[in-house]
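Quick question about two entries, pasted in order.
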Amino acid sequence: MARKPRADMIAETRARLISAARHAFGTVGYAEASMDELTHAAGLTRGALYHHFGDKKGLLVAVIDQVDAEMTVRLRAVSHGAADAWTGFRDECAAYIEMALEPEIQRIVLRDGPAVLGDPWNWPIQNACIRSMTDDIGRLAKAGIIVPVDPEAAARLVMGATQHAAQWIAHASDPQAVSRKAIAAFNVMLDGLLLQPTQAH
């Protein structure tokens, strides 16, 4: 039987560790997840974890990156399925806030992530999110859909609002009720960017 290429073996090992960690972090939480149990579930050793991720914290970063990438795909599908650019932008923002209701995202990304890795604004994945939203807002402004505004400044403010709303939901005693209130208020705020017909003259 032909031996697998080294790159494939590395990718498979990383995938098994991330899968096991994601399950553990999403069910019992980062603090309670045992590295011995985690590596056993993956059929690997602690040495493999240390080699590929450095430590448990490095593994959490990899898990968050994977979850975030999946969230991005889902959010883009929301915006692409909308009737127009503005509705797509608004629905994508609301969908992000609603994702805070999902147990895995709530626990890994919104609770354990900041507790272990610090302020999300300092995470590398935030830079990509800022650039993407800046581009979206820039296109909306150029198309005359929203008022003239500095795209990056608006992107950072909108992202700050969505992230704070998500954290509020994740730590609320009644997440469903908070989600409804947060999205309703957020949409009112976001609509303030729209270029009103009277402003176009």
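Here is the second entry:
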Amino acid sequence: MTPTEQPDNHLPAPRSGDEAWLSVIQKMDEAYADLVDYQVQVEEQNAQLEEARTFFDSVLAAMSDVLIACDHEGRIQQVNRACEELIGRPASELLGLSLIQLCEQRSQQILRSCLSRVRHEPVRDQEITILGVSGPVPLALNCSPRFNQRGRLIGVVVAGRLLGELQTAFKELNAAHAELKLAQDRLVQSEKMASLGRLVAGVAHELNNPISFVYGNMHALQRYTTRLVEYFEAVQSGASREALQELRARLRLDKAIADLDSLVEGTLEGADRVREIVNDLRQFSSTQRSEKLPYDLVHVAQSALHWILKEHPRVQVVRELPVSLAGLGHAGQIHQVVVNLIQNAVDAIRQQSEPCLTLRAGIQGDHRNGVLWLEVEDNGPGISPQDLPHLFEPFFTTKPPGQGTGLGLSISYGIVGEHGGSLTITNSERGGALARLALPVHPPVAVASTGENDEQG
């Protein structure tokens, strides 16, 4: 070592032999401990994998639907027990076969199309036919793609449900729906006829008045006709002037002639009244849908009120109605709604010492874009809070058993909705129930003015 060279104090000092062996043994212990940890982790993961596999196999075995896993070319990789039982072959014989080979001839092209489409989108409820152990079996097929971690298509999962069971279920469901719809139509018509039946007595009395009037007038006209025939025969036979004057006075022809105009006018008025009643009744009882026509809401309300009150003379009525309110719709259907509202109000006040019914109507807004409204208010006990939200539900009624079907308000609510209106029932501030009907107004027809009128204006 030269005088200028200095020893390197940073180099590790050489270890003795014992220290080197201790370091090696320590490293080996650490590596062994790591190997033991890895072994434990591997065993735990193997147990989890085995548990997951057992769970997966139990799920596959429990499935009643056919489940087939294929590769991207359609070769079978795995099937469940339902598939084995349907086809009648064990899984070991099915693995590696093309799924298309299991289909009926007509379904093979459909399945090829499904396997091609599934690369881009899932296939849902495709009907195919599988060759089962007992013959062709229709299936509703669902296909979904399988991808690897890189997003590459590696296979297809095919699930099929026996279409025979679905078809049977759909047929039973359709049959039940048809029966339910038919029963609903019958109940609706039954409720309508029940409402009509409640009006029979009033209608009969209403028809009896004009018919009796016409009948009496026709008897009077018959008597006058007999007198006139007798007088004209005397004229034709050449009777003297004095004899004709005496005969005219005896037959009271002057009075008969004076009564002819009033008898004819009264008869025509009675016939017109009968026609109006029959027309209203026909519209009310008709089940056919016709085009919407103008109607008078006040006339409809007055007619319904008049018919119902024939059976309830004790009920006092307060009318707050205008002369007319023009609406557009089916007069017979609106008549049915008003009849139901008035009938419900009358039923609610039967036990009152002084039953009273108030009928109001008017228009909210102008006669072009306004709303017609009609209110029926009674002085009954009102409606309980728990019943108010259910009044328009089918078959709900607050009446005793046998006195109501629970369809009147439900049908009325539907009719008003079809007319673009609204129907509400609340408790009045005076204690009874208040039903409010709102309907679109019938706008007046615009009349084009002439040039002459424009100049004058």
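Reply: Confidence is low (pLDDT under 50) at residues 1-5, 446-457. The first strand starts at residue 66 and ends at 71. Hope that helps.
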